[in-house]
Amino acid sequence: MPDHCYTGLPQWHHPDWSQSALHGSRQRSPLSRYAGHFSTVEGNSTFYALPDAETVQRWDADTPAGFRFCFKFPKRISHELKLKHCEAELRAFFDCVEPLGGKLGLLYLQLPAAFGPESLPQLSGFLQRLPDTFRYGLEVRHPAFFAKGEAERSLNRLLLETGINRTLFDTRALFALPATDPATLDALQKKPRVPLHVIATGSAPMIRFIAPQDYHQGLDWLEPWVGKVATWLDEGRTPFMFFHTPDNAESPELARLFADKLSTARPGVRGFSSWPDSLRQQEALF
């Protein structure tokens, strides 16, 4: 079976993509056009509200069999109830996304920065009760989980034991360079400034990479991911790579750049279908 690196963005529609290859024919939905090139997407909307059944059916119809949705657990579960007494909310979330079946990638739980080592027992019980019907990712933001101390070791042991993928958010390039543009200043306020400790605790490592507004300035941080993904593929893992920029206007080109580099390093790897250079040249005319 060919190597597969699922490659995607944090959204499938953006107003600044109207003149890009992702715009395409108006006969197709934004999701359908997106899925013609990318193999996965971050489903961040479920953090705020669950879609109705008709919407989920439409998402299914608009994507090919090989596409994977990575939905975020609702904030009601992670931030408000803090993983406690949330059985009904969990059931509603699972019932909502389950009709997508094999198109589900990772369901990922993003914990707030206030969720620290003292809550590890609560996290352990929560993770061990999750149904094995789905695959999961976990993103933490408390500083203790990045300090290379007992808290981080305990967290990693828990994830290794349960096979849950530690979701890594690589924000180094964003914070490394000075910025004055509004989009970057806003991102600097909202994105976590945490160290990057690269580890694969499950079969499907999930990486969220954010570059500066001029994504070419982030290449020194992007390049090592090509080698790491190739290593994971050698180990039989199936990575999920998501690419951000401060306003996401250039995130498709950032993802394309990574996919091109990975294809050079690992010919035949699947997970991204590029668009012709002629479309990029046409875009530059507008």
Please list the strands of the largest sheet in the order they lie side by side.
3-2-1-8-7-6-5-4
**Rough outline:** globular
Strand content: 5-15%
Unreliable segments (pLDDT under 50, ≥5 consecutive)?
Answer: 278-286
DSSP, total strands: 8
CATH superfamily heading: Protein of unknown function UPF0759
Give the integer mean of the pLDDT values: 93
> What is the CATH architecture assignment?
Alpha-Beta Barrel
Estimated radius of gyration = 19 Å
CATH class: Alpha Beta
**How many helix segments?**
11
Output the helix-strand order: EHEHEHHEHEHEHHEHEHH
Q: What is the helical fraction, as a range of percent?
A: 25-40%
Distance from N terminus to C terminus (CA atoms, Å) equals 42 Å
Give a written overview of the molecule.
The longest helix has 16 residues, at 219-234. The radius of gyration is 19 Å and the shape is globular. Helix 5 (120-128) runs parallel beside helix 6 and helix 9 crosses helix 10 (251-265). Strand 7 (206-210), helix 9 and strand 8 form a beta-alpha-beta unit. The chain starts with 5 loop residues before the first strand and ends with a helix. It has eleven helices and eight strands. It is α/β, with parallel strands linked by helices and 286 residues long. The protein has an eight-stranded parallel sheet. Residues 278-286 have low confidence and may be disordered. It has one domain: TIM Barrel.
